# Entry
Amino acid sequence: MNINIMLATIGETIRSARKTRGWSQQYLADLCNLDRTTIGALERNDYNDIGIRKVERVLGMLGKTLTTKDVGLPTLDELKVQYG
# Structure
């Protein structure tokens, strides 16, 4: 899985979990002691100035966590999709 897909998944997870709770970006930002624009950037997959600790803080407030897993080489089908 490439990094852009992984980051997009994180952004989608944050947006979905926030909306499920009925929280605005501002409310989540206040809970995490962050600026609302940071939450918006995370949801848009704009990680230019956002460190991993902020991502973890937001995910934690939403009852989520970052995890790692072992990965193997991509399958031929995955490479076809990725490189068309």
Notes: The chain is about 60% helix and 0% strand. Residues 3-83 form a domain with the 434 Repressor (Amino-terminal Domain) fold (CATH 1.10.260.40). The chain has one domain: 3-83.
